[in-house]
Amino acid sequence: MLYRLRKRIFLALIEVLNPYPGEREFEEEIFNFIMKLISLYPFLVKLALFAGLFFLELYPIFSLKSVKPFSFTRYEKRLSIIENMLQKKTGIRRNLARAFKALVQMAYYEHPWYMKKTGYSWAL
Amino acid sequence: MVHEENGILMGVITPETLNYKEAAFDLLIIGSGAGGGTCAGFLIEDGMNVAIVEEGDYIPPDELPKSVGEAFLKLYRNGGARFIFGVPGIAFAEGMCVGGSTVINGGMCWRTPEKVLEKWKLEEGIEKIEPSFMERYFDKIEKRINVEEQPPHTWSKAGVIFKNAAESLGWKVVTDRRNQKGCKGLSLCMAGCPAGAKQSVLHTYIQDFLKKDGTIFAGLRAERIIFKGNRAIGVFCKGKGRELTIKAKIIVLACGADETPSLLMRSGFKSSSGMLGKNLYVHPNVKAVGVFDEELFQWRGAHQSHQVHEFRDEGILLATAGVPPSMVAMSVEETGRKLGEFMENIKNMLFAGALIEDTGTGMVKNIIGGKPILLYNINDYDFYRVKRALSLLSILLFEGGAKEVILPFRNFKSIKSPAQIPLIFDNKIKKMDTEMMTVHIMGTAKMSGSPKRGVVDSWGRVYGTENIFICDASIFPSPIGLNPMLSIMGFSARTAEYILENRHRL
Fold this sequence. Notes:
The complex is a heterodimer.
Chain A: H1 2-17, H2 24-39, H3 43-63, H4 75-87, H5 92-109, H6 112-118
Helix pairs in contact in A: 1-2, 1-4, 2-5, 4-5
Chain B: E1 2-5, E2 8-13, E3 22-30, H1 34-45, E4 50-54, H2 68-74, E5 82-85, E6 90-92, H3 114-124, H4 131-144, E7 147-149, H5 157-168, E8 173-175, E9 177-179, H6 205-211, E10 215-218, E11 221-228, E12 231-239, E13 242-253, H7 256-266, E14 285-291, E15 306-308, E16 316-320, H8 325-331, H9 336-344, E17 349-356, E18 363-366, E19 372-375, H10 380-399, E20 404-406, E21 414-415, E22 436-438, E23 468-470, H11 485-502
Parallel strand pairs in B: 2-10, 3-4, 3-13, 4-10, 5-19, 6-22, 13-23
Antiparallel strand pairs in B: 1-2, 5-6, 7-9, 8-15, 11-12, 12-13, 14-17, 14-20, 15-16, 16-17, 18-19, 20-21
Helix pairs in contact in B: 1-6, 1-11, 4-11
């Protein structure tokens, strides 16, 4: 139950952070990579990340007076939420958005598909 | 890799293969990177019964990852995500595998600068660190890890532009000296070099160690040192649900400038100097990205090939580095489709960086569970030099033909002509808005001739103990302003030699 909820929020997040949204299968692979990466983090960091994830889910309800949580809002709304958080000068919301951005983009730009496309592992 | 002798497993032992709860050796080394691996290589040569405990896994050289993403999962501490808390926060990465950070670094090999050795001798009263004395260690290590100038056929197009621009400005530019044999220019040093060219400690001293029947406990974390009076009598280790107590006559700590003081602190040790965990230097790094009209494909060629040494007297080192796309994407503000458009241009970008020889210090503290956190605020003088370094990089990149230079400031993203360079010094650009990272931390158990000023003596022995030595960058009294791998290895070899000469008295 908790895993499914976590997955749904992450997939909603991955969709807005990905340069080319909407490739569901690809987004699932990114999610799996992120889960592997998080499993290597210290307990307190894991705790903070998952608390942050649920904060993000409820953020539209408490702060934007929306009736829908983050993962149920439409793409444009989710993108604007993340972009606004990233533009905050300091504070938890900015750091949280940056942490999620780092995770998703690490997974996306290290994906073998992308590496092949750019020719990064060119001689292997 | 594992064999049995008198019912005891030897070789590389993991928590899965461990079949005993206690072991005893003449000497135990905690950590297997530049410090621990080198020390082990030197000690085993003389027939000592030595074991290594390493928190990370043993990945055989021919099974190293083929991408940086896979490497983050297998070779880096915390999957590559570490952080130094302060203003500004600094991203930090280090290796956690047998071979330590030497497996994932750029392989730059510079001897400790003479002026640094002289400073340490004069200010800290450290004996026998004259360049002429240190030379024999560096000679021996350089031969073993095959240090040579990066061959021209491996230079990337970006590296050549960087070199030519520096020369055209009349700046002193040097070809990197790196520990490699037959570099193929894959720019995958950060993944451990799947071509097998990098001569890391894993490829060299660790293999020597294993060939001479050394024992490595991989995947076990040293939880605490067991003391009896002033002597350490063993180390308690844990990993994947298994426990092991290793007894040893001599213990060498080589866990890095974060984990070494942390282990001593959680073992209840207090340094009479009050310097344990303090004096943290981080060599702050900043990057500037030149955008060119032509395609550069910076990753086609050696990860790094040249450095500008013109400004070393100011404590500024300039270099190029093939940064993986993921690192680039993480470090810019753009996201979603805008990021996709930005990243389309990555093949036209030249990534350059500056290393600052810092003057301010931070500290390492233990939090709940005995894990270390790093605290560091950059001071005003060092921040001024960060801006100075970025202005120099911008001059160099425009000289090389860049049409735009992307800066690491949140509120001042790029400049499009040399005339805009003075804007970098604008007071509106704050420390908090600057993105920095590092891969060099040092100084948290500093060496000194006096127990009132340092944590370890001139030979790396921890003051107040009879038989604990430190062999990593934590012993450096000050930053060295260059990539520190060879310095760490040189000082470790020096400590190993001291241990061998005095082992019957320890």
